[in-house]
Amino acid sequence: MNLTLTLLALLTGFLTGALFTFLGIPMPAPPELPGVVGIVGIYLGYRVVEYFEVGVDLLSTLGLAG
Prior knowledge:
By secondary structure, the protein is an all-alpha fold. Helices cover 67% and strands 0% of the residues. The protein folds into two domains: 1-28; 32-66, no CATH class. The chain has three helices and no strands.
């Protein structure tokens, strides 16, 4: 994992959140811990399936891959 990239992503998210609050725009992410944990779960599920190299190419299965 690239630490610099991770820190830049964190800084970008922080600045975006601060800007949204400053402008009075609702946060585009779940404002409660269960929502954040759900997002982490989605990420972990993605990584586990990727690690075991399983999956289906949905576009090819539907005949939409070009």
